[in-house]
Protein: tRNA (guanine-N(1)-)-methyltransferase
Organism: Oceanibaculum indicum P24
Amino acid sequence: MSWRATVLTLFPEMFPGPLGASLPGKALEKGVWLMETLDIREFARNKHRSVDDTPFGGGAGMVMRPDVVDAALGAVADRPGPVIYLSPRGRKLDQPMARDLADGPGVTLLCGRYEGVDQRVIDSRRIVEVSLGDFVLSGGEPAAMAMIDACVRLLPGAMGSEESLDEESFERGLLEYPHYTRPQAWIDHDGVERVVPEVLTSGHHEKVRQWRRAEAERITAERRPDLWSAYVAAGEEDGN
Ligand SMILES: C[S@@+](CC[C@H](N)C(=O)[O-])C[C@H]1O[C@@H](n2cnc3c(N)ncnc32)[C@H](O)[C@@H]1O
């Protein structure tokens, strides 16, 4: 059974969008994963077919109605995997979460618009909230795309070489080491010659491995003290 992404949105025409290109697009074509969108507007029942209304208590903006969103969720209740509401208030998406989701049968994603979704539907369906980061998007769709992309590339058969996954940023609690390709010596825009670190052209696999590990550790310690502390606490350093 293919991994299945079900997206509830007011803008189904946005999908697959970027997910139809490159790696996720090829995997979609191959049937490694399936994409389904549900137009929340189709579940609007009042005579104006409205999906939103003004907030109780006043204030700016509109809120997505619980009856409409709940009817849409009910229509896909049998889809596999958890239901997630993309929301800036949620737990931040990270690589372990993407891996957990990719290891499961799929995910149903609820995309908010306006000021978001009426709290009662989130409470009554015990929906998990997940955020892309500490910033506010105009809608959940770009967040859903990012989340699906992060999961799909982890699915068996989505990537050419499984090896490239193990070494990636976050997979071992570290950011990735720097990459270099041809030409070996390159003149930059200031006329400075920049050469590839010698060890990478030495043909000595163990030294390359050690250099990459040391660089990954250096970059992580410099840029992400939070990741570095967790890595040190887990006793992973020292070139294992
Ligand atoms: C304009 S935002 C609503 C922001 C909300 N009023 C607040 O201040 O928390 C509309 C929708 O975009 C989505 N969204 C915005 N920022 C997001 C983020 N950082 N991660 C995930 N989804 C986000 C959510 O689905 C949200 O319901």
